[in-house]
Write a structure and sequence with these properties.
It contains 29 helices and 28 strands. With 816 residues, it is of the alpha+beta class. The longest helix has 20 residues.
Length: 816
């Protein structure tokens, strides 16, 4: 009987050095049966529309490694369906639940839910048991395994083994004592048929073992690892196909299922590589074609050890709870062992399907980098509109129990919209929107001045003497009800523009001349004039007084969100959200001000700035309050900002002089210009900028500009943009102008800052990846300002070219 199957000579497998992807054409008498059972029989699997499979064991959650395996198979299947529509090509989900002790329905449901969340929908699976190649749970396919095991016995390729557990243990101990790798010694391999019949008649328990042919080599052409071969006889003994309970073992099920379901390519983790030997032997014995194999390297943690729970979140459900987007997870997982041959790292799902190729899977292990995942997630979030993600933000708010059960739909919708809009620019994950809202609704001003952190930004600011008077003015205006507060009948004013579209820029606000944001702005101008303070000497104290924080989004947006939590029909669970009402804030602010020492209740004189920084040996100096009070200061001096700066070095940025050669309007984005800019490289850069609302094409064409060059290339509204043109803007970003470069500056030269080393190796700009992942520009940007004379500065020092200082028409503004 053995000679009837392809690849057999005298009952033994041929020894071959060739991969057996293509089934033998030496048909046996029972070949018609095998053709109906194994749909790929007689075909080259490389010529068939791909049928891919993911086969999880329902013994736990779906983790990163399994999700990547599922994704790679899904991508090949989806591309195949595009290339070969209306065929049987597709993505098959098969549940390998033969481990009866550990497999659970709850785990299966969890894995399927995670795959659904990732968007890896299957064409055939356990929820479709009547599909052509079903059922898709191994526990429901036992009759097929038994039938094929009996076929192998009948053809002399498998046999019953009646060895007891005790006999097998003795065999193992003996071999270990002799220094031989333990394996089955073939006791029942060539047993007397009469004895076998007698044992079966007596009902003695037995396993079914595969008879490994003498002298055979199994060879595969792995798509990732190249040619891999095993000397079967030297590597494995006669292994079990069916346990004594009748339950089939893993490798037998996998081989049978891959063949009977017509799987063309198997992409899986490298830990399964050794299983390929047994599976290949089984497939060859059954006369079934082998699929193509691709074994992917492991995913490691940052310590270069195999990724596990000790490295943090690894299950897909935890990433969902932590606020990652399915598309971002898919994007990042694809990059863990594959690239498209370019520097592109951000892909849509459709772009991945188009670009993915098994032949570009790399051999080397990949390191799971949480910072990189967050960066990828942030790029996907930035590409989405507020309306696209607010339902996902609502889910995060619910995770934190910040929304009341049964809340008013309208109030809930407004709060979620405002929360999403407020955090849109800074979000790395959806969870950031919820935690940001909790920060905004809270109030972290300490109870007393003494509770402030020594050397902290807030304490140093208060010690300059402006905070007390400004906070006192705020309290006086609050008591007289003259301090502007959000209008209860239109709490979304600050968050939307004239066309009711979300405003996501941090410092941009909506509203007409009579609206709350504009009333607040007018109040700040009046305070600046009356108190003779301006810029950060006004805005930082006001922000700390009202929000309890030294930095954050626009104050009117924050107070509007707070007002939403205080309405009668508020959707907010105040306790879980940590809401501190505006009235409570004012009371806490009053008590805090009472605790401020007398010497910090008046602005210090300009010449006392050195003492404020500790240059006289003691921070704050020994100036008395009375002496300071005699001095009127228009714009209080502050310490050298570079002394307290703790962000990345300015040298991390590669800011160069560029010349705009060409500018045109983006066809689909009404705020974007497309620019071709010479920055001293072999080819000009293509850069998209959001300057159309502020400048004309004539303003840009031919201009010398400052260009931030070490940003990763990315697509803005479909346009490939590689860099950013730096501009100056006023405080509310209503006016934006180009930073001007001296006419004699050289195109491509690097912009420097006096007193800072730009020449040494340590001063080299950061790589593009690092700038993006570490949010380098975002951390430096708050310290890029224009002086009262319009000079772009970093920590009070001008941006310089070889031809002199850069300038701008905007004073006391920001550079971004």
């Amino acid at each position: 009987a053995a000679s009837r199957l392809p690849g057999y000579v005298d009952g033994a497998l041929k020894s071959t050095a060739e991969d057996t992807i293509e089934a033998s054409t030496q048909a046996s008498a029972s070949d018609e049966v095998e053709r109906s059972l194994f749909p790929n029989a007689g075909k080259n699997v490389l010529d068939i529309p791909p049928r891919m499979r993911f086969a999880p064991s329902p013994t736990g959650s779906l983790h990163v490694g399994g999700a990547r395996t599922a994704l790679y198979n899904w991508l090949v299947a989806k591309k195949g369906q595009l290339d070969h529509p209306n065929t049987e090509g597709g993505f098959v989900l098969r549940v390998e639940d033969t481990d009866l002790a550990r497999s659970t329905k709850e785990s299966e449901d969890s894995v399927l839910a995670d795959l659904s969340w990732l968007g890896l929908t299957w064409d055939e699976g356990p929820d479709m048991p009547l599909a052509k190649y079903g059922p898709y749970r191994q526990s429901e396919r036992s009759s097929l395994y038994s039938k094929l095991a009996q076929t192998l016995i009948d053809e002399g390729k498998a046999y019953p083994c009646f060895c007891t557990a005790e006999e097998l243990e003795e065999m193992k101990v003996r071999m270990e004592a002799e220094g031989i790798p333990p394996r089955y010694d073939g006791t029942w391999r060539d047993a007397d048929p009469a004895l076998v019949k007698e044992k079966m008649a007596a009902g003695d328990p037995y396993t079914v073992r595969f008879k490994v042919p003498d002298g055979v080599r199994v060879v595969i052409d792995d798509a990732v690892r190249g040619t891999v071969s095993w000397d079967a006889e030297a590597t494995v003994g006669d292994f079990i196909l069916l346990r004594s309970s009748g339950v089939p073992v893993y490798n037998f099920c996998v081989a049978v299922d891959d063949a009977s379901m017509g799987i063309t390519t198997v992409i899986r983790a490298e830990e399964h590589l050794t299983n390929t030997l047994r599976q290949g032997l089984i497939l060859d014995a059954l006369g079934a074609p082998r699929p193509r194999y691709a074994h992917c390297s492991l995913i490691l943690g940052e310590d270069k050890q195999k990724l596990s729970k000790r490295h943090g979140a690894t299950s897909c459900n935890q990433f969902r709870l932590d606020g990652f987007l399915p598309d971002a997870m898919v994007n990042y997982l694809a990059l863990l062992g594959w690239n498209d041959g370019t520097d592109n790292e951000i892909f849509t799902r459709d772009e991945l399907i188009e670009a993915f190729d098994v032949d570009r899977i790399v051999k080397s292990p990949s390191v799971f980098d949480m910072d990189k995942l967050k960066w990828v997630n942030s790029q996907h979030l930035k590409a989405m509109e507020v309306e696209e993600i607010q339902d996902l933000v609502e889910e995060q708010l619910n995770f934190l129990d910040m929304i009341k059960e049964g809340a008013d739909d309208s109030a809930k919708r407004d709060f979620v919209f405002a929360t999403t809009t407020l955090a849109k620019q800074m979000m790395e994950t959806l969870q950031d929107a919820a935690t940001n809202a909790r920060t905004v609704l809270g109030y972290n001003l300490p109870a007393t001045f003494g509770d402030l952190e020594d050397g902290g930004e807030a304490k140093e600011m208060i010690e300059l003497g402006n905070f007390y008077n400004i906070a006192t003015r705020v309290l006086e205006m609050h008591d007289s009800k003259s301090f502007p507060t959000p209008a209860a009948d239109n709490l979304l004013t600050a968050f939307v523009d004239g066309s009711n579209k979300a405003i996501v820029e941090d410092n941009d606000v909506g509203g007409d001349e009579t609206s709350y944001p504009q009333e607040y702005k007018a109040t700040m101008k009046s305070m600046a004039k009356d108190m003779k303070v301006k810029g950060k000497n006004l805005f930082h104290p006001v922000r700390l007084a009202l929000t309890g924080e030294m930095s954050g989004q626009d104050v009117t947006k924050q107070l509007s969100l707070l007002a939403m939590s205080e309405t009668d029909n508020s959707a907010i669970n105040a306790d879980s959200a940590g809401v501190v009402s505006f009235e409570t804030r004012m009371e806490r602010l009053r008590k805090f001000c009472e605790s401020i020492p007398e010497e910090f209740r008046v602005p210090m004189k300009k010449e006392d700035g050195k003492k404020a920084t500790g240059q006289d040996g003691e921070k704050g100096g020994n100036k008395t309050a009375a002496a300071v009070a005699d001095t009127t200061v228009a714009a209080p001096a502050v310490a050298d900002p570079l002394d307290v700066y703790e962000g990345p070095p300015i040298t991390a940025l590669d800011i160069r002089v560029g010349r705009i050669n060409k500018v045109w309007t983006h066809e689909e984005a009404d705020k974007l210009y497309c620019e071709e800019i010479d920055v001293g490289e072999d080819e000009p850069r293509l850069i998209a900028s959001g300057l159309r609302p502020y400048l004309s094409e004539e303003d840009l064409d031919g201009r010398m500009v400052l260009v931030l060059c070490n940003l990763k290339a990315r697509k803005l509204a479909g346009f490939p943009s590689h860099g950013m043109v730096l501009c100056a803007s006023n405080e509310d970003h209503s006016v934006v102008k180009l930073c001007s470069v001296p006419v004699d500056a050289k195109v491509g030269e690097r912009v420097t800052v006096p007193g800072i080393d730009f020449e040494s190796e340590e001063a080299a700009p950061f790589k593009e990846n690092k700038v993006g992942k570490k949010k380098v520009f975002e951390k430096i940007a708050p310290h890029l300002r224009t002086s009262e004379h319009g000079v772009p500065e970093f920590c009070g020092r001008p941006l310089m070219t070889s031809a002199g200082v850069c300038t701008s028409p905007i004073s006391d503004g920001s550079v971004s």
